[in-house]
Each structure stands twice: as structure tokens, then as C-alpha cells.
Amino acid sequence: MTTGTPWTLTDIEAAIRAGWSAETCSPDDVERAPWTADNPAWGQVTEGRLMGPRPQGRLPRRWEEYRLLRGRVGARLGVIGG
Hints:
- By secondary structure, the chain is mostly helical.
- The chain contains 4 helices and no strands.
- The two termini are 18 Å apart.
- 17% of the residues are buried.
């Protein structure tokens, strides 16, 4: 979805949900309970971090998960601001 049409909340939600996986789940959370498709938001990077301006430098933690999820969402929506 890389048209000039503004994204809808449905577009954003679908892209984020499609990007969530065990690979984007926090390792700390996986130690408590595994990620499953039944609870896809478990241990994920927050949407605000993903959709907001790109952080300066590396995130103090969860950098790899952030980059993986941001890339997956960007692949569905096109360029993400920041």
C-alpha cells in the first residue's frame, strides 16, 4: 500500500498485526510466556515507537525487534515518517 492515499487506522492496524511475531517479541516476555498468534500483541514494540519519529541512535533495548517490526510495517504501508 504505497499510494498517495492517507493511511486509515485499519491499514495501520493490519500492517502492525501482520508484522508481529515471536521474532519481534521481547525476550524478557518470552521467558514468562511464549508468543502465540492467539495473543499477538504479547511483548511487542509499542505502536507509538514504531510510527513516531525514528529514535536518535540505538534504542537502549529491543533495537533488533524494533528494526524488524518497523521494516515489516514499512513494507506493507510504504515510507513511515521520521
